[in-house]
Amino acid sequence: MAEILVERVAKSFGDKVAVKDVNLTIKDREFMVLLGPSGCGKTTLLRAIAGLGMADAGRIAIGGRDVTYQPPGQRNISMVFQSYAIFPHMTVRDNIGFGLKMNKVDKSTIRKRIEEAAELLHIEELLDRRPSAMSGGQRQRVAVARAIAMQAKVLLMDEPLSNLDALLRLEMRAELKRLLADVDATTVYVTHDQIEALSMGDRVAVMRDGEIQQCDAPNTVYESPTNRFVGSFIGNPPMNFLEGNIKRSNGQTAVEVAKHEFSLTPETQSLIHDLPGNKVTLGIRAENMETLLQPTPETVAVNVEVVEPLGAQNLLTVSVGGHRLKVSTHPTLEVATDQVLHIRFPANQIRWIDPTTNNVLYTP
Amino acid sequence: MFFLYPMYEGFVLTVYDDDALLPIRESPTLSGATVAKLPLGTELEINDRRSQEMVNAGSDDLITDQWFQVEGTGVDGSLLRGWVTEARIRVREEDASGQPLAGTVRPRLGEGADPLTKIHAEPNETSSVVGQLEQRATVTITQSAELEVWFLVQPADDMNSGAAAGWAPSSYLRVSEDASRGWVSGATSGEFTTKFIQRMVDDRFFGPALRTTLLLLVLIIPVQLVLALAMALVIHARIRLNSGFLYVFALPIGMSDLAAGILFFSIFTGNGLLNSALDGLGIIDGPFAFLTAETTGWILVAIVAAEVWRATSIMMVIIVAGLQAIPDETLEAAELFGANYFQRVRHIILPLLKPSIQVALILRTILALQVFAVVVALSGGDVVTVLANESFRQYADLRNTNVASAYALFILLLSVASAVFYLRSVRSEAEVRPT
Ligand SMILES: Nc1ncnc2c1ncn2[C@@H]1O[C@H](COP(=O)(O)OP(=O)(O)O)[C@@H](O)[C@H]1O
Ligand SMILES: [Mg+2]
Fold this sequence. Notes:
The structure holds 2 protein chains of 2 kinds. Chain A is an alpha+beta fold.
């Protein structure tokens, strides 16, 4: 059992607060992804879990054992560093076996584990070579093999794919996912790549400015962001946001955007009615709007500005009443620039956001 | 060029004797072909003399002839103008400054002597004859010239008998009163020789100097390596005050070796710090003379102490630079995979430091081979002596540049040998480079 408990962990470098009071529980054998833009504190949080660079405050427990003051070597963890941190003076074999040797595992077991790890990562033929002449992809495999060979309860990875070129990254992403499924470890995986996060994680913790914004299963994070940041950070293209005016009249509340009035469902009525001020933000994903050539009472007329054919879909940039929206359409729908289209916003796809807190008020 | 030339010059000084031989020539000019080369001091028989244009004006042993340019009526009645040696003319008229203006041709005395005197086109006997003058003929003297005398010489001793005869300028010879015998007193031509090296090796200080130099090497280097590593690790550990440590450790670099020697002299001397301390602690009664001819062991201790104090930080700086080149993540990875501090030092830091340690060792060994001022300050330069001190002694006291150079070259040779030794023994596999 290796549940990871992070309680009110904080860390600053001088004036710069890197991690603010983070609470996070990672279940045994869960694959947790820490996702966020560069500089948001992912590495700092991961290092705190590893015990590299003491946290300023908070408590960390692994497998029910408080490890806050334990050195990394005693936490029963292993790690893939962003720079790989392979020992340049050792052969691949010695690199992979290093942790086992330090932990006084007997020689025959070490040999067996090295071979298993090498086989998993298809680097058997590199075992007796030194890492200096190796490609980035090969080094990455060595770093992963070294981490896996430890058979630690917790596996930490800091952007293991970010130093690879795009094609290799795609290939390794799938391979790593397959491989980690077989490894019985609680995994914390840091990345700034939302596709990596969504495709690999059991849960994704989205971070911003040292705080966790949302921690949920990938499709939840995608479908039901808890705030505007998560919606804008996840998804390609990011979620669209529109400013709406609240119209309150004789107990009925409606929202008007670009002269189009959105009628509200009973659940959202009261939520929006109670908002202070007259503004509300409406969020909707590009693929959740319906595009029609003919107007209906429910549609809004928009002007097509850019058409980007992406193969499986066409991505349109349209403008409506000073707003710009990204809309994806089926590639068979023929659209041209400057054409007028009609868009329907299905009520169950609209997220209502409080413009002052940027929190999502209601997700259908 | 700038870097190689002084070394070339040192090499030449060591193995080449600049003025060992005097070339003697087929004809009495510098362009004459060399017949033989005679070592300095060779006894000579002198068989002839000639006057030649001056090439060695101002030399000590220069012997000169005076020639006059004269005008007069020749035996054939024509007007002659040409050069004649001063010995054939009696000067009759001089100007106020003593410059000869006119004279008469001296008669030749004795049976069968040629009554006529030859006049040459140029002021030397080998030039063409332009005419002859009667004895007692009146001439005007228009010019005079000083000429160097060359001698036709032949080695006089038995060993060289039968050796070729040849011409040599007077300035390189010492000649007897009657100019019939002489010896080679100067030389213009060098030869390769091992005599300076021989002289160095035979020097009675060579053995002690070499022994002490190597002994100091063996005593100092291991101590310094261990100390420098420890100091570097302390600084690298990033504990608080580490910049303070760096300054304290690096301070002695700022002191010259002579100053360090004097400092340690004042510590070890009769009424110095060490004696006061030991006396104060009641360990000794009255001062103990550490630095005397009878206590060379203590002198060595003082030298080792001074050198360790002074030069350890040079190694440390190199090693710190090497440590800083090791990425933090590499060390963190080792820590994370369970290596404790000593295991990290042994398995990660030391192997990755190999190139730096190598550089530090080479540099430090070369510096130790040159140890000089500290030894002079602590021993006066003779009770305990080292190679560099001998080089200095040969140069400054004995004025023997060649032997001094031989010592210097010997130190260079030891330095190169030690560098090769380290490069081979502490070999860092070519691939080992922090990535
Ligand atoms: N060793 C450090 N010294 C000073 N500031 C640091 C250090 N490490 C990280 N930071 C700062 O802390 C913030 C979070 O860094 P990091 O955790 O590395 O972000 P991420 O991994 O998400 O890109 C950044 O603003 C970074 O500049
Ligand atoms: Mg990072």
